[in-house]
Amino acid sequence: MEQRLSVITLGVESLSKAKQFYTEGLGWKLSPNSQEGFAVFQIGGMLFALYPKQALAEEVNIPVAKGFSGITLAYNVRRKADVDATLSLAQDAGATILKKAEATFWGGYSGYFSDLDGHVFEIAWNPFWPLDEHGNIDVS
Questions:
Q1: pLDDT digits (tens, 9 = 90+) for 45-100
Q2: Is 95:113 a contact under the CB 8 Å cutoff?
């Protein structure tokens, strides 16, 4: 596993208010890859995303009532098969698999694990967000 992150996703109570805060309040520019129900901002070689908190909690199989922080860290891989290999590596190191890898509604393949302190990581292959030789994403 390369030493990098690909996407930081914040689970937000109101996507429209959060988008307004980041775009109008802070002056950030939405990526053209943003969609209904999901906002994406290019930040250097990574992405910063906003997603409804309840939907994100359901995605990672941690109920909000159980203390889900509303934050996930994504590690994107170059090949679909790398998702399963990376999840296995994490599990062998002591991580808890929260969701086994599966095909996603957006056309990729991903799964989730939590580290020893409960921080949630998504391991994802996204054919629409290719990585450069350094592992950076550029969707601008």
A1: 999 999 999 999 999 888 876 677 889 999 999 999 999 999 999 999 889 999 99
A2: yes
Residue 132 lies in a domain: no
At which residue do the structure tokens 């309840």 appear?
A: 54
Domain range for 42: 7-125
User: Where residue 60 sits, what CATH number does that domain have?
Assistant: 3.10.180.10
pTM: 0.77
> Strand ranges (DSSP E) for the chain?
7-12, 39-43, 46-52, 71-76, 96-103, 109-114, 120-125
Residue 140 lies in a domain: no
Q: Is residue 50 part of a domain?
A: yes
CB 58 within 8 A of CB 68: no
